[in-house]
């Protein structure tokens, strides 16, 4: 059952891609996802939301954003997908997140905004040059260990080499090994923003904060992965530019 990688150019492809995206993020469970997307009641609603959002972005024809899919050529089933972005520096580093996907005034919204701003701020302090940025990647649980993930990652690193730029990934702890096998160095832990704990202390001082404490019980850390221009990371020789 050969696999084929292609760039997504037709919005109708998201009808196949988004169910894969939804199911893949559940196994293993990703505790960060609820802060980037609305927590909708059903799988169907979640898929519809993601389909509409990604269709809108695709139709914007941003030359720096690339949607990819991997298809099983025997069954014509999409088994994995990824989004790569050419980031001029860190496009979110100086902004203020508005987590519109959560109800206005809710603890979930404030938490998401604080968490995301802390993540972007951490990355922006380090990655200050134009680079390839992996925004998302998934492979359906039923099709893992077939090489689809490596195909999606290698497309991005090949594009980065073509452009003469570095590649950066903010990785979940569970994915670190896969990225290392794809030529990335594991630079440092991305911790949850200290602002989260500070705000929790403030809320508890007001007799609030139960929801925040519940959300902070989950592991929201990650790994900052980096690959130099033109080749894979060499352990013991390479140092990320912001660490040298």
From TrEMBL:
Q: Name one GO molecular function term.
A: acyltransferase activity, transferring groups other than amino-acyl groups
Pfam families linked:
Acetyltransf_1
Q: Where is the N-acetyltransferase domain?
A: 3-230
Question: Which species?
Answer: Ophiobolus disseminans
Protein's name in the database = N-acetyltransferase domain-containing protein
């Amino acid at each position: 059952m050969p696999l084929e990688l292609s760039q997504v150019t037709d919005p109708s492809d998201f009808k196949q891609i988004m169910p894969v995206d939804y199911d893949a993020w559940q196994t293993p469970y990703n505790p960060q996802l609820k802060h980037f997307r609305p927590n909708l009641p059903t799988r169907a609603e979640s898929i519809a939301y993601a389909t509409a959002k990604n269709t809108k972005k695709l139709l914007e024809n941003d030359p720096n954003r690339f949607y990819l899919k991997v298809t099983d050529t025997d069954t014509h089933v999409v088994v994995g997908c990824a989004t790569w972005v050419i980031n001029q520096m860190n496009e979110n580093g100086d902004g203020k997140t508005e987590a519109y996907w959560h109800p206005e005034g809710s603890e979930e919204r404030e938490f998401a905004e604080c968490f995301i701003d802390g993540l972007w701020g951490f990355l922006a302090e380090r990655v200050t040059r134009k680079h390839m940025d992996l925004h998302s990647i998934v492979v359906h649980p039923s099709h893992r260990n077939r090489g689809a993930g490596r195909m999606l990652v290698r497309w991005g690193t090949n594009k980065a080499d073509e452009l003469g730029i570095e590649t950066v990934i903010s990785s979940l702890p569970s994915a670190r090994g896969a990225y290392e096998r794809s030529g990335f160095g594991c630079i440092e832990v991305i911790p949850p923003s200290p602002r989260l704990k500070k705000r929790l202390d403030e809320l508890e001082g007001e007799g609030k904060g139960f929801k925040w404490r519940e959300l902070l019980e989950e592991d929201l850390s990650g790994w900052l992965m980096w690959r130099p221009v033109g080749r894979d990371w060499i352990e013991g020789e390479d140092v990320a530019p912001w660490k040298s």
